[in-house]
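Standup notes
- DV: blocked on the single-chain target, sequence here:
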Amino acid sequence: MELQNIVENFKLNGKVKNIEAYGNGHINTTFLIECDYNGGTLRYILQKINTNVFPNVEGLMNNIQSVTTFLRNKIVENNGDPDRETLNLVPTIDGNSYYTCKDGSYRVYKFIEDTVALQIAESNEVFEGAGFAFGNFVKMLNDFDASGLFEVIKNFHNTADRFKKFINAVDKDAVKRAESVREEIDFVLKRSNICDNIISLIESKTIPLRVTHNDTKLNNVLIGSESGKPICVIDLDTIMPGSLLYDFGDAIRSGCNTGLEDEPDLSKVGFDISLFESFTKGFMAGVGNCITAVERDLLSLGAIMMTFECGMRFLTDYLEGDVYFKIHYPEHNLVRCHTQFKMVADMESMRDKMDEIVRKYSKV
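- DV (later): unblocked, structure below
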């Protein structure tokens, strides 16, 4: 079905004049819609949902609709701009949050003008702003009942379950690689005792179950083109019940590496404590007193855990024959594993300093 026919099923303002591919996302297929409206141009984002990754479209879209509606009401209460500070779904003609045809399932968002998504932090201040955005995201959803959310990807940050899959991959040794990565396997085994830490704390209600974003990379915060300030948290596909330790930790994992995720020269890879301080400063300002003292004291563990889990997943995939992550050469997953484990080791050696920084900016 042509895109023009698909967008006619949504309540767009104006007449569609152009639809073109947009962005560089790796999961969903994204298009920019331009409409003539009152002598000007209104823009929208059209996305074809990747049902290989998200087979339950109804559960996914119910999550997004309920969270964005909740956020919109909160933003109005706080005298903010609900058209810019959260994603806004455009309903279908039938009043649904998405449209399904023989070609697949589609959704439309209002386009947030005069913003940019940065791939890397151009300054510590930008990363601090991202920290504030994700901290504020937690604060705004503090009284949202996360237990009602659909688990889009089951056991996504269940590190204990990830460890079981890792052990299974080692035991099966499907492509006979285990012997060549004994050092990496031992790295994981020596840290097996931390794998169920966060899950057990959630289950025991020692830390609260919260709405978690689960993909807290810098490029999932829209930044004001002129102000340089964070405007809106985007890419809500992986919203699920979990812990804020996941979101804080994954942001640190992805944003505080001095090298690339797949940098083969480990001398270029390390944990940037100054970037950690910038993000932490912003995050703590954003979350305010909505974080519990227990969560606060575990933030550095969250950073270590999410980095460790990611490295373990790369190593598991390498042992299984590279069946999950896309690779560009045979050792790609192993190289990725090495960068994560290097970061883990660095963070472990600096954990006291990390804890000191967290306490410095804590409001609880």
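- Follow-up: The first helix runs from residue 3 to 7.
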